[in-house]
Amino acid sequence: MSTNHSNSNKLTTSWGAPVGDNQNSITAGHRGPTLIQDVHLLEKLAHFNRERVPERVVHAKGAGAHGYFEVTNDMSKYTKAKLFHDKGKRTDLFIRFSTVAGELGSADTVRDPRGFAVKFYTEEGNYDIVGNNTPIFFIRDAIKFPDFIHTQKRDPRTHLKNPNAVWDFWSLSPESLHQVTYLMGDRGIPATLRHMHGFGSHTFKWVNEQGEAVWIKYHFKTDQGVKNLDPDLAAKLAGENPDYHIQDLQQAIEAGDYPSWTLYVQIMPLEDANTYRFDPFDVTKTWSQKDYPLIEVGKMVLDRNPENYFAEVEQATFSPGNLVPGVEPSPDKMLQGRLFAYADAHRYRVGANHNQLPINRPKVPVNNYQRDGYMNSGTNGGGSVYYEPNSFNGPKEDPHARITPFEVEGYAGQTAYDHDDHYTQAGDLYRLMSEEEKARLIRTIVEAMKPVELEEIKLRQISHFYKADPDYGTRVAEGLGLTVQA
Ligand code: HEM
After folding, report:
1. Over the stretch 454-473, which tens digit does the pLDDT of each residue have?
2. Is 40 a catalytic residue?
3. CA torsion sign, 196 to 199 to 142 to 467?
4. Contacts of 375 (CB under 8 A, 6+ apart)
5. Domain count across the chain
6. Distance CA 332, CA 322 (A)
7. Does any domain span residue 13?
8. What's the ipTM?
9. Is 443 helix (H, G, I), strand (E, B) or coil?
10. What is the CATH number of the domain that holds 333?
11. Catalytic annotation, pick one of 40, 66, 126, 132
12. Which of 49, 75, 416, 468 could crosslink 426 through cysteines, CB 3.0-4.6 Å?
């Protein structure tokens, strides 16, 4: 337990008055009943009733750490984002790792993607990269996200996880195949949070001072090396120590064994997006590193544990919409939906003034015309002008932060991505695996699909595996006791 940080060691009420007795409530006579005038007791019980905020609707279970990012390769040629300028420059950051589907108290060592959310406290405001430990995702249009997550969470009737729903949705959404192969493979259960890569996953736009733009993807490569957990050990740990990953991270940092990641970007010239062999904004695909090699940007080091879990980790609010000049969204249809979803979740989960909390507050002054709202803990603009435009020298726009104009074309409509090849990259991933990895992948998929009741779902999913690679489909089918005909 760390030391008390208040100036005095005197116990007070939340309004700062000293507490005379924190062991015995005020009663009428020796036996009671208890008197309503015991406002310390009333406040204590009432505040306790309100200790929980809603958990995150996804990524509820997580671990956080503070650290810094250091530039090793100046990127000013490509982006005006100052955190990527000047070799040797450091920017403070906070990271939160998470599992996706489980609740706040669920086990760490389950098969699930891991969230990898980084908040950089830059000199031009906060920049968040809210990614995962996988470079791809299950779906590629935000409109499918609530349905997808319903299948990952509990069945509303039984309150149990439902493999029928999981495989029904995946088999009817073949764009998920690449990520399903990734998740069911060895990397589906990382050994620790320190032994996995992180990815921005989406394509973003970088813009330099001259207004020239490129498309980029972020890769955080773990300097600890990738290590995964054997599924049987993972299951044992889930029972014995459900907080295994949180504990490992805390203990490593406490011992001064600071984990680090090297940040790379892939850079694609703007015009290549029109001719690349698939849609580079489709988040179910990776860009070939032969076409767009990794370019080093800097190093991320985690060197400080949170002092208080709720204040820092639970109340942290990350959003892909927290961008700084020099980084802009791409037209990725998942990313576009996320630009809305996160800040909306934060207003609901933490409150409209969530950005005033110390963990979320930028380390630069915030000057705007927003006022009031629940839990407004700043100066609320003091006596300054509260509308814009004004004649009173209030804060003004900065043309440097305007977005770069971009071309749009065609008709508005509800159109799918042009490229429908869900199989090549999933098959490539399968073919890249050693024979032992393939055998583990097949075993995991077969075990996961066994409880599916409808044969139609199994056959539909097997046909996707088969299209990715006949060997892949045939082996899953055999494992499930089914036969396939080419
Ligand atoms: C958390 C929505 C896709 C990574 C969340 C939260 C919401 C959400 C509402 C909870 C936020 C909070 O309460 O603070 C969505 C929607 C998506 C989507 C609507 C698709 C349209 C993705 C993708 C990734 C991702 C593709 C990774 C590439 C994360 C992470 C967190 C998170 C890391 C946890 C952030 C934290 O640690 O606080 N998402 N998500 N999400 N999401 Fe997504």
Report:
1. 999 999 999 999 999 999 99
2. no
3. negative
4. 351, 353, 356
5. 1
6. 16
7. no
8. 0.98
9. helix
10. 2.40.180.10
11. 132
12. 468
